[in-house]
Structures
1.
Amino acid sequence: MREAGLDGLASRLTEKGTLTSDWLPMFKAVPRELFVPDLMWPGQTKGTGQGEAIDRNEDPEAWFTAVYSDVSLTTQWDDGKHSGTGKGKSPTCSNSQPSMVFSMLTALDVRQSSRVLEIGTGTGWNAALLSERVGPGNVVTVEVDEDNATSARERMKALGYQPTMIVGDGAEGYNKGAPYDRVLVTASLTEVPHRVIGQVRTGGIIVAPYATTYGGEGVVRLVVQRDGSAVGSFIGSSAFMRLRQQRQFRKHTREYLGGKEWPADGVQSMTPISPEELGDWLPMFAIGLQTQGIFPWAETYDDGSYTLWLRDTAVTSWATVDYEPGRKEFEVYQSGPRDLWDEVAVAYEYWDTQGRPGWERFGLTVDGETGEHTPWLDSPSAPLRPVV
Ligand SMILES: C[S@@+](CC[C@H](N)C(=O)[O-])C[C@H]1O[C@@H](n2cnc3c(N)ncnc32)[C@H](O)[C@@H]1O
């Protein structure tokens, strides 16, 4: 059953085009099941979020089926503070979705004996796959969580791989192992760490999930340039766990209302843009690339209507847009020095008028000296104008 599971998943990933012939031997040599703990929460095949826990000791068949499915498997909640079979508040470690793992490995374009830095060891599966491909002596993997690192080390050792394992903040990279030819990041970044770029040789490649403050996330493939900058396009959508130090903590809406009842001092207007149009991952990403420090939240009601809240990270401004099914115009309230709905609407309309570009038309330049991030559309010479 185990072999059938592994071979079955290999065939499905090969058909999808995500598992290429150069990674197939590693997929077989490093069985996923050896990198998944007995207790885990499989991702849903449709949508996001985790299903109920599966304990291998209680239901080995369900466990193997999940391991050899193309879904991510959550292995830790709340930085390890949560225990038991229920779900915690936030998933903080997983064995990533196989099609995502191999798409990213393919984008990394490793050569024989490339020196690779991985940020986010997690369960150790990726580091073991890389060790099999380029040799463990060429792999450095950094994990912030001591327990995750210990389990990953044991799993890799059992298969004979002992890459350099560092417990610490991956945003620092690992200078002693530099220069690297490739960097693979498996926790999402809101900023590509300047220090890490500096540890990559010219022409080297960084593959990382990049998340915007507004929401939406995509995998970017950056090539390090002679001048120290890193430039490249996005290759597709992603939804990784945030790098621990780059998590954002949000203040409650009441902190924005200054002790008053909504709509407080908000200025009313109407918009023909339905909040429904902005809710998908791609428009969120496009809006996020153009706006600064705005984040959305939906307050939902039983009748299918909801209020889209927009707040700024500086806690100066807020906006609400009320969605009701069947309406052609939607009520807006805005308060504070920034008109957050207007900013979001401008960003959305730009994306719409450009033909609703997908991930691959967007790219990112990170300046080598200042660390400034400049997103672009189609070409690095066409930076997206930040909406203000
Ligand atoms: C999605 S998992 C990584 C999956 C992993 N590559 C695998 O093969 O299982 C994300 C991991 O990133 C780790 N992480 C979060 N912040 C980090 C940081 N600043 N430095 C290093 N690792 C970090 C988390 O603890 C978690 O284990």
2.
Amino acid sequence: MNPARRTLTARCCVVGGGPAGIMLGYLLARRGHSVVVLEKHGDFLRDFRGDTVHPSTMNVLDELGLLDAFLQRPHSEIQHLAGHVGTDTVEIADLSHVPGRAKFIAIMPQWDFLNFISEKARAFPGFQLLMNTAGDDIIREGNRVAGIRANGPDGQIDIHADVVVACDGRHSTMRSAALMQPRDLGAPMDVFWMRLSKKPTDQNAALGFIGAGVILVFIDRSDYWQCGFVIAKGAAERVKARGLDAFRNEIATLAPFAADRVDELKSWDDVKLLSVAVDRLDRWFVPGMLFIGDAAHAMSPVGGVGINLAIQDAVATGNIVGAALERPGPVADETLERVQRRRMFPTVMTQALQVFIQRNIIAAVLRSEAPPKRAPWIMRLLVSIPGFRRIPAYTVGIGFRPEHIEQHG
Ligand SMILES: Cc1cc2nc3c(=O)[nH]c(=O)nc-3n(C[C@H](O)[C@H](O)[C@H](O)COP(=O)(O)OP(=O)(O)OC[C@H]3O[C@@H](n4cnc5c(N)ncnc54)[C@H](O)[C@@H]3O)c2cc1C
């Protein structure tokens, strides 16, 4: 036996401290269960991660009695989503009518959000978050997963659990360890992310600009703009070969209000490339282990709903697996299958909508050689219908089959 190897036992071991994992850890600990969450990084700091907290997530926070404390943390709020196409400005979504107290998208650095939830979770005795600790492999008992073999700052550690939930993101190690392969649904684009400063005279909103073969998105971060420069998949090297000056000029032409600050991009190091993927597992579990969040389904950035789906998965898992853990012993396959049945529908519907928009709008724009002069007539017609803007607002802000916290004994 390796003397350096420690052993821990918990009802649930969660691999990955992203939005899905931290929220699930909170929810299970709140129900009185012991839960160990493993996070391979030493902190939650990630630049250009999803930082949008949608009304569906804030409704969950409200049900947990956490919304007021959450909104006291620094954040910005977006209520209207608008697109600029040629000479047209079209307001695509108006969130002022979505159900719940928070009728806006809150923009908060993901690390602040995760710190907030994990601080609240630490108040429950069953919650244990092991930072700098990477889940490496699965511990098996017969054909079922019975725990996780991990590596932390003090060496190797075995966590034995009645259920393991893999929340380790789109490049999930646990998925590979369980020999699971997601189905690729295809994405026609990649995104360059960067920051530009924000001036008091700028509009407070999320803005989109469409040019020849490019879409430029500005997300309001209070004191700066988070900018996404959407290009055709694989075109990054071509864009870089044209040079940083050409890149800056393209931003300035598309978004003239930002022309006076494109020089803030000093080198390509200020521009980060995100390779966009849309995929999902057909089966979200093996005996003893469940996959949720990006580990089960990587979402397209269309609509910025990845975090919120991850949180909704965590709420469904907290309800279904949390109830099953009221009984002693390993969690049955049927319980894990119930989580998949509950969450597959919103995942499939959201991805279908994203893939439709990717194929029919984004791919067409990215193929175009000249900037459009006006927004497509169908778009202008739809947004002119009173109340229409509430539909995209509901789809983005609340989504399909919103989850609620189930009360327990
Ligand atoms: C550049 C970028 C921009 C995005 N923008 C948005 C946006 O604006 N809005 C939005 O809603 N979504 C956005 N997303 C998507 C969003 O970030 C994800 O959908 C969401 O974070 C998924 O949450 P998750 O908890 O499932 O996985 P993740 O957030 O990926 O978290 C996984 C966690 O597991 C940890 N981990 C991985 N492997 C191991 C291991 N073996 N052991 C222990 N820990 C491990 C990782 O360090 C990470 O903390 C963006 C994604 C990217 C990459």
